[in-house]
């Protein structure tokens, strides 16, 4: 199974609601590597790399997020393959 990478930009109430930490937990559970970080404009950016089915599952989860999040939009783009040892938050 080929490793793939995708970048997601998540809008809504996604900062200050443990969105990045929850995303990290989901990613680790699915065997996905990459990172999640807050952007100055209030969005969260996620770079996720792994097997296609695992990325699909994490991408679907990003539309919900943790209980206190209110996601209004998720835009996803395909990125060149990259290698990460783990999934981190920054």
Give an account of the 3D structure:
With 90 residues, the protein is of the alpha+beta class. Helix content is 26%, strand content 42%. It has two helices and five strands, in the order βαββαββ. It has helices at residues 19-30, 52-62; strands spanning 3-13, 33-38, 44-51, 70-79, 87-89. A five-stranded mixed sheet has the order 4-1-3-2-5. Helix 1 runs antiparallel to helix 2 (52-62). 30% of the residues are buried. The model has no long low-confidence stretch (mean pLDDT 96).
Characterize the overall form: globular
pLDDT below 50 for ≥5 consecutive residues: which ranges?
none
Sheet-strand content, in percent, reads 35-45%
What is the tally of helical segments?
A: 2
Widest sheet: strand ordering:
4-1-3-2-5
Mean pLDDT: 96
Number of strands: 5
Order of helices and strands: EHEEHEE
Class based on secondary structure composition and strand pairing: alpha+beta
Oligomeric state of shown chains: single chain
């Amino acid at each position: 199974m080929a490793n793939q990478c995708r970048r997601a930009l998540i809008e809504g109430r996604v900062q200050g609601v443990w969105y990045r930490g929850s995303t990290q937990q989901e990613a680790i559970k699915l065997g996905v590597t990459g990172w999640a970080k807050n952007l100055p404009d209030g969005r969260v950016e996620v770079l996720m790399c792994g097997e296609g089915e695992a990325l699909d599952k994490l991408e679907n989860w990003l539309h919900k997020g943790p209980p206190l999040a209110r996601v209004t939009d998720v835009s996803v783009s395909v990125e060149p393959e990259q290698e990460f040892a783990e999934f981190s938050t920054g």
